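Exam revision sheet. Question 4 asks you to relate a sequence to its structure. Input first:
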Amino acid sequence: FGSSHFGSSHLPQATFHTWRAVGRRACAMPRRPVAHGAVGLLAVVAAALCVARAEPIKAWPCENNTDHSAIQVLEGDGGYDVKLLDIATGGYTTLWSVPFDSVAGGYTRINACGISPIDSKLYCLYEIGGTPYLARFDDQNIEFVSMATKWARAGAFSLNGDFYMTQDTKMFVLNRPDTLPGQAVPDASLPPPDVEITLEREVGADLNMVSMDLDNSGEKLWAISVESGKVMAVDVADGSVCELTPSIDLSGSYGAAWDFQGELYFANNDGESGVFRVFLTDGACDPSGTSTVTAHNVGESDRTSANDGANCLLEEAPPWTPAPTPAPTPEPPTPEPTPAPTPEPTPAPTPAPCIKPCDYCKKLLGFGLDLEHSKYVIAYKRCVKHFDRFERIFEHYCEFGVCPSLASTAVVGSGAWVQHLQSTKGSASGVDLDLDGQRSLLQGQSVPPEAQEEDASLLQHRVRQNVTALSTEAQESHGALSGRAVAAAEEEKEEEQQTVTEVEVDRGGRCKKPCQYCSDICLALGAKAYFLKCQHRCEKRWWAVEIVLEKFCKHGVC
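Answer key, structure tokens:
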């Protein structure tokens, strides 16, 4: 589709679009014998374009995007344009254009756009021959993945990768379009949406999908939009609509919505009102409450129409800040005598930079727990939203640390007991007590030392079992130990138990085991059905989790 955010075509834009349109039509036509001359050349080029068009759709650069992309897909001259909002001026810069003839048979309009949080690709609804099709596309290629049952003017992704579309009083849900195969030419073989929901009333022109406890019945998914001066919250489970009164005037049409890490923004189409942030809180839709919501104007936006917004959901919000009102210039003060220069103090050392909560969430869930795909996305959203829970866990670790291991006590105490049995049993038994082998149960592990704490009690138990078994074997082979030897052995065993008990008493403070920290972390994530898997994963990767905790102790949080 011409030069763009991803790269540029080697052909002049007009020539490229002409040949690409021919290629798309050729792909949709049956095979015919190749003619000679110019017509044959046209068919060969068209066939080549048909093959080239099958290249994979490029992902949006969500992870390395420094310009905080607030995207709009807008109707332009001869097609639609993918544009980027300049937050400083409110203007829009064209990234690339999508001509009407860029698909086989041409299209008439585009709307309901969003960037998938799973594959980071741009999806929009195209209308072709009166039928709406959902497609993913970039500046060069397009793939159709679904045939919608009805046109939609609003669309948005949830964090788990499902796509939601609304029109009038209908909502359509397509589960995980990133998993659907794409095809170059749309037809009736494409799958329809998975779910259709009837809404209580019509909602706004663009959506944001959020998981919150708006009605105090538990956290669930809501579709948020702005319509007729109200903030509309749709419970996607049953289609019920909660109307919230904003703290400022939000009249007009809001055709673009953006969700940056749960921060909700809406742009008015009139070119004067600008961009607003809506501050939703749990319980806002409780019937016993006031049904109000705070909203602030944060920036400018040019006049738009036939438009829809899209952005990377896990990206940080642009630095929208209203310009402060300049204070009046004061009268110049009467000059005073110049004082003697004061010696400058020695500057204090620059403190280590603090780390933001969202970065701790990325380190804990990505490096620490090694979560992937949708599990990472859902856990990241909860971590950022409830970071105060994790901060308490991290602070506890920094103050009290991990309880000391029982491994050394268990090995030393049991070793004395084994040596006593060896001295009393003699060499005629033919049984060799491998004390070094018992020590290697812990010392020979390849996992990091801090991960060995959970093995300590197991090691202690194994050593005692082996000692007991060998003691019995010695008695059966050579007769009962002398009364003096048995008394000495029992005395050794009592001293060992007393030492272990003292260590356990020392651990009775506020220190915690790794498994206890892991339990706290999984509870803070709200991992109900997956709690045991979460805890097991955390204990297995405790060495990595502890690195994140130590980083918090060193740098703190911004």
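Marking note for examiners. The chain has a mean pLDDT of 77.
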